[in-house]
């Protein structure tokens, strides 16, 4: 099958593309630059030129495909509202192109605020509704398109999809620790973050795509979660040890100053289960744990580009 992939050149996309190719699919990846186009060609994908700001390119990419994997996102956390609006516009456009076709639309989402005080499951609905909400309320919008002849599947990634070369949240935490000389956590650091290795996330995406190509999934949510909830205090301690800096509590009222935009995310308690995902898709994470990656030096000199 031909799969249109936005964000194919990104951290998760570049792990998903080889898995989709290995499953026998043809991949057309969205590329907004020559660098991204070259990376896609080298990976064995075709190139579909365009960008999140060029809705026609998203429409044609979706129309020409048997299924869509949408991973591109504007990771400008200082302008998060406009990233959300762009996400909503992109999702609306591709859903429009797929309407009435019964084709899969797999899209990236997150685990924030699904279930206060308990472990979130795939059955918990996203609380974010409307264009002004985080990620433009795209999860609710897309899942409601099941009524319009589309097979939407929310891929809820753990906040750290980790591994050597990561430039996501854990890399930013490491960068802050290097810069401030302290591996901080917020308050008592008992709030938990789930984690998944990038290789496991890539494999899971291909499994979810094949499930959705075969028929509309009864439960259209996938949790890319290998570890349910690591205390953020322990994450900070692991980073501190790897970087040779002390670990310290940062009072909640100083979190924004210390961590910048990441403060709100690193304060969140968002444990999540993937039991239903594992059972349904036969997925067993086998990559390194977050602490194994940190101890192996994956974050000891990580560049940060977002
Ligand atoms: N990584 C994580 O830990 C994590 C955790 C939870 C959720 N997620 C979500 O999972 C998805 C994939 O994340 P990721 O870590 O793979 O992101 P990433 O490494 O930052 O890659 C982002 C991708 O989006 C593309 N992109 C960004 N702006 C674009 C634009 N204006 N037009 C076209 N393409 C654009 C990038 O293309 P270029 O190559 O041209 O830059 C790149 O392929 C995102 O929705 C993210 O929010 C990730």
Automatic annotation (TrEMBL):
<dbReference type="InterPro" id="IPR051783">
    <property type="entry name" value="NAD(P)-dependent_oxidoreduct"/>
</dbReference>
<dbReference type="Pfam" id="PF01370">
    <property type="entry name" value="Epimerase"/>
</dbReference>
<protein>
    <submittedName>
        <fullName>SDR family oxidoreductase</fullName>
    </submittedName>
</protein>
<dbReference type="InterPro" id="IPR001509">
    <property type="entry name" value="Epimerase_deHydtase"/>
</dbReference>
<dbReference type="InterPro" id="IPR036291">
    <property type="entry name" value="NAD(P)-bd_dom_sf"/>
</dbReference>
<feature type="domain" description="NAD-dependent epimerase/dehydratase">
    <location>
        <begin position="3"/>
        <end position="212"/>
    </location>
</feature>
């Amino acid at each position: 099958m031909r799969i249109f992939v936005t964000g194919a050149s990104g951290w998760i996309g570049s792990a998903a593309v080889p898995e989709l190719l290995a499953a026998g699919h043809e991949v057309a990846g969205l590329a907004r630059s020559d660098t991204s186009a070259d990376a896609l060609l080298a990976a064995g994908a075709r190139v579909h030129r365009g960008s999140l700001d060029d809705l026609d390119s998203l429409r044609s990419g979706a129309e020409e495909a048997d299924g869509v994997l949408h991973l591109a996102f504007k990771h400008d956390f200082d302008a998060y509202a406009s990233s959300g609006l762009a996400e909503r516009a992109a999702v609306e456009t591709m859903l429009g192109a797929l309407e009435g076709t019964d084709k899969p639309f797999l899209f990236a989402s997150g685990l924030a605020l699904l279930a206060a005080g308990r472990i979130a499951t795939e059955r918990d609905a996203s609380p974010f509704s409307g264009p002004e909400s985080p990620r433009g309320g795209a999860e609710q919008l897309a899942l409601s398109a099941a009524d319009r002849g589309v097979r939407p599947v929310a891929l809820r990634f753990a906040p750290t999809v980790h591994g050597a070369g990561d430039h996501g949240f854990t890399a930013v935490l490491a960068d802050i620790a290097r810069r401030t000389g302290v591996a901080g956590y917020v308050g008592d650091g008992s709030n938990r973050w789930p984690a998944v290795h990038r290789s496991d996330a890539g494999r899971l995406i291909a499994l979810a795509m094949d499930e959705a190509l075969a028929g509309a999934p009864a439960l259209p949510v996938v949790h890319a979660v290998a570890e349910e909830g690591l205390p953020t205090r322990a994450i900070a301690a692991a980073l501190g040890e790897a970087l040779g800096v002390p670990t310290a509590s940062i009072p909640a009222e100083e979190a924004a100053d210390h961590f910048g935009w990441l403060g709100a995310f690193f304060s969140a308690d968002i444990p999540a289960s993937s039991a239903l995902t594992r059972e349904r898709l036969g997925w067993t994470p086998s990559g390194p744990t977050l602490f194994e990656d940190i101890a192996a030096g994956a974050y000891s000199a990580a560049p940060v580009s977002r």
